[in-house]
Amino acid sequence: MKRKLLWSAKSWDELSKDDLYELLALRTEVFVVEQNCVFQDMDFKDQISLHLLGRDEDGVLRAYSRLFDTDQYYKGYQSIGRILTHGKTRKSQYGIELLEVSIETLKKNFGPVSVKIGAQKYLTSFYSKFGFKEIGEDYIEDGIPHCIMIKD
Predict the structure, then answer these.
(1) I want to staple 132 with a disulfide (CB 3.0 to 4.6 A). Which of 2, 6, 16, 127 is the partner?
(2) Where exactly are the structural domains of the chain?
């Protein structure tokens, strides 16, 4: 698949103030405003994660995820979290590109290990296209149905 976005992966120390402001604004726009969900987004895990930023040709942040090495989020697994695309670009296939690049970036930076995510339940069919499988029981997080999924 030809990449449509320009990707960069940055540690906490590599993020500029503008990067940080932009990614927090986009996370708030998607998770708080769009999903009408009041929750504590800033959870002190940004400092230990790798931030994957997908920008369009104009430099606008269109896709984002947080990447965690083994044991940083789930014991024995790498993880991807705060997976999102900008609402105005959802039909652009950026979500597919984001997940592909997230998985590639995990492998490149941390090596090949199983990946565990806490997925919003309505997105399980999307994640299953990338080899993720549901395990365990569904749960509610911040008022939204979720499930745990693992990709070996």
Answers:
(1) 127
(2) 6-112
Q: Compute the average pLDDT of residues 67-90.
A: 95
Structure tokens at 73: 């989020």
Average pLDDT over residues 34-61: 94
At 53, is the secondary structure helix, strand, or coil? strand
User: Which helix (H) or strand (E) is 43 found in, with range?
Assistant: none
Classify 31 as helix, strand or coil.
helix
Region for 41 from its dihedrals, namely left if φ exceeds 0, alpha if ψ lies in -120 to 50, beta otherwise: alpha
Q: Contact, 97 vs 73, CB < 8 A?
A: no
Q: How far apart are CA 24 and CA 74, in angstroms?
A: 23
pLDDT, tens digit, 9 for 90 and up, residues 125-136: 999 999 999 998
CATH number for the domain formed by residue range(s) 6-112: 3.40.630.30
Q: How far apart are CA 68 and CA 89, in angstroms?
A: 25
pTM of the model: 0.94
